């Protein structure tokens, strides 16, 4: 656990619980992009939806992929779930998103300060960097820590009608993902496109 | 050149600039409904980037890294919008992971234009070395790629390659050689 490093006044929550709370709120076929590893494992475990996309590699690209979906379908809300270690690999994407200002994009960072899936090694940012401060400094003014589960749900509700992209950071525990995504990239991509109304099944 | 022109669809009004390499690429992108253009800049690509920015058909913007741009156009394609990534040779060298873990296994028609540095008058040793990694990486994944050296072949290669990428759901790299673009030389 890294709670001793956590100097923020935020409750330490659980990724699967937070992901399940998010999914329960989605009533308009919102797209959800799950980042590599535990982030998409918990998205899968929260119940597959046709509008879910699961990354099986390309660490750090959940936000860029979600940005692409958001630019292609500006009327649809697009969520991206990303781990703190993954985000560290692609911090420049925050500025790209800030410059383009897609109001339908909502970024959620699951921050436990560790690479849980590889053996819980601390990230270089653990205890020294602040995801929300980085996002704000990258130009994403609408960025906030969720204080607890209820605050997370309130921030999601706000993001649903926001006029600019939103970033919600969640301090989470060191638990692994609850499920395991079926690693079938072509089916994942094809079903996602069906879910977005881009294609009809054969 | 006349041969290539026979392959074209009717040209829009601003045809005067279309006989440059960058004019041909812009019109070929437009004709294939490719409207989302993230790029990491390159000196040689400057006129193309400038003209893409000036044309409201395109959403053209800089990304911080080439793999980020690949993620963006991959997401856009799944959402029903076509895109292409512009980069330099050294930028392509950062892409092996995203090609092998996203574009290829998910069968995404990733369209890449790579301005080729490192050959035909390169003055930076590092650039010439990085250039030598590009085709082995493309070949190791059996990715379609073409090196374009002639203006009269550009439209045919670009148009056909884009259509093949989309219909076969496979990435393609179009390498813009200094013989086509003039490249970058020491006194610039």
Attribute tags:
heterodimer, A: 202 residues, alpha/beta, Rossmann fold, 6-stranded parallel β-sheet, two-stranded antiparallel sheet, 37% helix, disordered N terminus, B: 188 residues, 4-stranded parallel β-sheet, 3-stranded parallel β-sheet, 9 helices
Radius of gyration of chain A: 16 Å
Nearest-integer average pLDDT of chain B: 92
By CATH, the architecture of chain A is named: 3-Layer(aba) Sandwich
| Largest interface: chains, residues each | A-B, 39 and 33 residues
In short:
The complex is a heterodimer of chains A (202) and B (188). Chain A has 202 residues and is α/β, with parallel strands linked by helices. Chain A has helices spanning 15-25, 38-45, 62-72, 84-88, 92-100, 131-137, 149-160, 185-195, and strands spanning 31-34, 52-54, 78-83, 105-111, 114-115, 121-122, 143-145, 166-171.
Q: Secondary structure elements and their pairing?
A:
The complex is a heterodimer of chains A (202) and B (188).
Chain A: H1 15-25, E1 31-34, H2 38-45, E2 52-54, H3 62-72, E3 78-83, H4 84-88, H5 92-100, E4 105-111, E5 114-115, E6 121-122, H6 131-137, E7 143-145, H7 149-160, E8 166-171, H8 185-195
Parallel strand pairs in A: 1-2, 1-3, 3-4, 4-8, 7-8
Antiparallel strand pairs in A: 5-6
Helix pairs in contact in A: 1-2, 1-7
Chain B: H1 2-5, H2 21-31, E1 34-39, H3 46-54, E2 59-62, H4 66-78, E3 82-83, E4 85-88, H5 89-92, H6 96-103, E5 111-115, H7 125-140, E6 144-148, H8 151-168, E7 172-176, H9 178-181
Parallel strand pairs in B: 1-2, 1-3, 4-5, 5-7, 6-7
What does this structure look like?
With 202 residues, chain A is α/β, with parallel strands linked by helices. Chain A has a six-stranded parallel beta sheet, sandwiched between helices. Chain A is globular. Chain A has helices at residues 15-25, 38-45, 62-72, 84-88, 92-100, 131-137, 149-160, 185-195; strands at residues 31-34, 52-54, 78-83, 105-111, 114-115, 121-122, 143-145, 166-171. Chain A contains eight helices and eight strands; from the N terminus they run H-E-H-E-H-E-H-H-E-E-E-H-E-H-E-H. The model of chain A is unreliable at 1-5 (pLDDT under 50). Chain B has 188 residues and is an alpha/beta fold. Chain B has helices at residues 2-5, 21-31, 46-54, 66-78, 89-92, 96-103, 125-140, 151-168, 178-181; strands at residues 34-39, 59-62, 82-83, 85-88, 111-115, 144-148, 172-176. In chain B, the strands form two sheets. A four-stranded parallel beta sheet of chain B has the order 4-5-7-6, sandwiched between helices. In chain B, helix 3 links the parallel strand 1 (34-39) and strand 2 (59-62). Chain B is globular and about 45 Å long. Classes of the chains: A alpha/beta (202), B alpha/beta (188).
